[in-house]
Amino acid sequence: MAVDRVDLTVDKGEIVGVIGPNGAGKTTLLECLEGLRRPDAGEIRVGGIDPRVDRDRMARIAGVQLQHSAYPPRASVDDVCRLFAGFYPDGAGYPELLEQFGLTGHRKKQVAKLSGGQQQRLSLALALLGRPDVVFLDELTTGLDPAARRVIWEELRRRNNDGLTILLTSHHMEEIEYLCDRVAVLVKGASSRRARPPNWSASTPAAATG
């Protein structure tokens, strides 16, 4: 989906949600911000960095949780965590993250044999591994039951209180209301409003949430 005329600012320490129907361009927007997709026009800065130009600095300040992640087919959870840990000076702390997200008992299991929800939790743990300043989360709790979603919400809130900036997409309006300071609505690739009124889910048209 093409993204056009999007004007989005996320202040340090904010949690901002991006919502919109399927095909509105939410994932495309995040991929541009992450430096994974080159925009045809416009300007993008993340912490003052152009994510397409300065990839090394971008990797140091930003964590990314993709909607669909691909890992080596035979790799275990430990294998993947050690691989990612090697990218960061303090990456050796991954066992603590696995414990926080209920994955300690699955460290020797092949990632391909994890459930969809477990893979989502692993992707989030990897996004947080380098102690980033900002994280991009694309449908972060898809496939998780309500209790597991709540655990992740509480952990993200805790890290946000410590200064982590978060930009996320979600179809769960309860998640948006619980986590987000502000919300941007994408409709047909363009941002239509940026606010967070009270009772957001009650006041937002169904077409905006899919």
TrEMBL record:
User: Could you tell me where this protein is found in the cell?
Assistant: Cell membrane
UniProt keywords (A-Z) are: Antibiotic resistance, ATP-binding, Nucleotide-binding, Transport
- UniProt keyword annotation of Cytoplasm present: no
Question: Does the record bear ATP-binding in its keywords?
Answer: yes
What the entry lists under InterPro entries is as follows: AAA+_ATPase (IPR003593), ABC_transporter-like_ATP-bd (IPR003439), ABC_transporter-like_CS (IPR017871), ABC_transporter_ATP-binding (IPR050763), P-loop_NTPase (IPR027417)
Question: GO CC annotations?
Answer: plasma membrane
Q: Name one Pfam family in it.
A: ABC_tran
Tell me the Gene Ontology biological-process terms attached to this UniProt entry: response to antibiotic
Give the membrane topology.
Peripheral membrane protein
Matches recorded under SUPFAM superfamilies: P-loop containing nucleoside triphosphate hydrolases
**What positions does the domain ABC transporter occupy?**
1-210
Q: What is its main location?
A: membrane
Q: Which GO terms describe its molecular function?
A: ATP binding; ATP hydrolysis activity
What is the protein named? ABC transporter ATP-binding protein
Give the species.
Answer: Polymorphospora rubra
